[in-house]
Specification:
By secondary structure, the chain is an all-alpha fold. Helix content is 81%, strand content 0%.
């Protein structure tokens, strides 16, 4: 459920906020996407480490 919410934030930003700011098709939104991918990868690493910790005897 959290992943769907996180993806919803991205889609909202692209469809509404970037359109209002007229950032689509420019490099002004690059900072947001860098932040988005850092959080996404960090969340994935956290999840993998947590799963591995639960699997340990």
């Amino acid at each position: 459920m959290g992943f769907i919410g996180w993806l919803g934030v991205d889609l909202f930003m692209e469809a509404v906020v970037f359109e209002l700011l007229q950032w689509n098709g420019t490099t002004k939104n690059d900072g947001f996407f860098i932040f988005w991918w850092i959080v996404t990868l960090g969340w994935a690493v956290y999840g993998i480490l947590r799963l591995l910790k639960l699997k340990k005897p």
